[in-house]
Amino acid sequence: MRGILVALGVAGVLLALNAAFVGSMGPGLAMPPYLLQVICLAGINVILAVSLNLINGFTGQFSIGHAGFMAIGAYSSAYFTVTFGDRVRAAAGFLPPSGQESLVLLLALTIGAVLASIAGFFVGVPSLRLRGDYLAIVTLGFGEIIRVFILNIDAVGGARGYSGIPKLANFFWIYGFAAVTILVVYRIVHSSFGRTLVAIREDEIAAEAMGVHTTRAKVISFVVSSAMAGVAGGLFAHYLMYIHTNSFTFIKSFEIIIMIVIGGLGSITGSILGAVLFISLTEGLRQFAQYRMVLFSLLLIVIMIVRPQGILGRREFAIFSRRRDRPPGGGSTDGRGNL
Amino acid sequence: MTTFLQQLVNGLSLGSIYALIALGYTMVYGVLRLINFAHGDVYMVGAYVGYYLSRKLRGAEPSIGSALLVMLGAMLACAALGVLIERFAYRPVRREARLTLLITAIGVSLFLENGAQLVFGPDPKFFPSLAPRTDFLIGGVRLTSEQITVIAVSFLLMILLRLFILKTRTGKAMRAVSFSLDASRLMGISTDRIIATTFALGSALAAAAGVLIGMQIPKIDPLMGILYGLKAFVAAVLGGIGSVPGAVLGGLLIGTSEVMVVGYLSSTYRDAIAFGILILVLILRPQGLLGRVHKEKV
Q: How many Å apart are CA B165 and CA B150, to the nearest integer?
């Protein structure tokens, strides 16, 4: 009961903020469009960072193809909206227009999430069966290959990019889904399954000896993470109304990694902070665009040398850590897993 | 049949480039158990060093001597770069978790790619020809002098590497370190020095590959290392990561199959072939063709 009330409260606050930002509650409260767009893109990056942290930070498996799953979500959901959107609206004619739009968006995002998770399953099974860093190279390859495939599908624009996607996503939907992502990852991490994941991160052999089906747990974690990346991609497509495969290169994947490394591998609040910090820095340093990535890559190396667990490490901000349970990183105190 | 032989020659010359890069991956993996993501970018730097050196030598006629000079210069520069990367990025985190080492490697890779765009400019550059070119026709198969050079130089370097690993004291120490880092330290081997040597050797081979690709496909750009690095890594996995002959075999197989698929099927998915092979290897034979199964011990 309390949960439902909190959820309704959050939704109400987001709806009110959304109305205020676009200016329907008086021009004084309206947000400049550029700033609003940056805030919305930050929200999408929060979803990406928090979901990537589930596999990289909590399970200790290194995935560097998150942008590939994002691309699948973006293209499949956009294709659905463009092709079947009208039919869905007609079928749901009894709903008010905003209800129809929401229904189309939710269906599109579901399809994006399902397809991204199927891709995640087929990428994850061969590489997660093995110990070691194979997931890294397979996901990197996958991320590039899926781009080449999309580039050759003419139905979604190919090299011209995919335009004409209706603008169905807004501040409300993006931050609503960010809240859902954070909640889901938080609940997973604090469940017994979450402790399984942390056990795999800390010592895979010991976890296996304790009777954990490590491959199964790793694949589930990876599939959930991919599905969330698919949702983020769908929101991205329906917010910007135009997508191109150049938005989903390995550089995007590396950016998400930088976010979670800045924030802390294995900290949910850390990845939120990292995503917001990264977006603020990239927008703030826009006039130094060519030095920006050099700076970020140096930052990545220096953080790894000086503070390998990231700035926040595995700690969470106070609102997020209930006093009665220990933080999910409780196993090792030095913050160094054994992979 | 002639077409097939022609494709085979083309495949072998591409494959020997992959093999040269794959050797660096497999050697570093052998001693550090690290996928050195920056290795593909060292290869790119090698190509650029070769480019600037050959521009410096432009006054001289293209000759074997100047080509040799360019190649040696690039190899030396990249050996130094490899040692620097190892010393300042990897050594401080060597005792940390594997994930830390991997993220550092990605950081180094990003740094080299973006630094190269800054220093060399993001646009592709055209590699000047280093040696006078002639074509040979043997039984209907056209062999360019570049292809012959690429295959000959690669195989010479691979044989030299094999002799180095099998016949010298340092090579013996490298084999010991890749067998067990801790045990070789206890036996009095200076592991830091051996790891640095491994990086130097691997990077020099990558630089040679960079100059050779510049001679063959005369277009180089700061991001060229990513795809070649990825395919060379797949080659190392296919041959059995950690195995030096495996890397050569894997490189030649990947190069040949890529050229064959492009020649007989379609060029659209040429970059997907290596990836498909990687998935198949991971499912069917994760230890690779010539690799050994490592027992996991606590």
A: 22
The two structure tokens encoding residue A127: 């590489």
**Nearest chain A CA: its distance from B207 CA (Å):** 22
Q: Which residues of B touch A60 (CB under 8 A)?
A: 99
ipTM of the complex: 0.85
Note the pTM of the prediction, 2 decimals.
Answer: 0.87
Place of tokens 């997020």: A320
Q: What percent of chain A has pLDDT over 90?
A: 46
Mutate to test the interface with A, among B101, B281, B282 (most CBs of A within 10 A): B282
- Which of B88, B119, B90, B122 is closest to B103 using CA atoms? B90
Region B143-165: mean pLDDT is 90
Region B35-42: mean pLDDT is 93
For A270, residues 6+ apart whose C-beta sits below 8 A from its C-beta are: A53, A260, A263, A264, A310, A311, A312, A313, A315, A316
d(CA A39, CA B293): 50
For chains A and B, what is the number of CB pairs under 8 angstroms? 119
Name residue A243's beta-bridge partners. A162
For A331-338, the CB contacts below 8 A with 24+ separation are A331/A198, A331/A199, A331/A202, A332/A202, A335/A308, A335/A309, A336/A308, A336/A309, A336/B96, A336/B97, A336/B100, A337/A60, A337/A201, A337/A202, A337/A203, A337/B97, A337/B99, A338/A202, A338/A203, A338/A204, A338/B97, A338/B98
Confidence band (pLDDT; 50, 70, 90) for B99? confident
Contact: A297, B283; criterion CB under 8 Å: no
Name the residue with tokens 């050195």.
B36
Answer yes or no: are the C-beta atoms of B76 and B148 closer than 8 Å: no
CB B28 within 8 A of CB B200: no
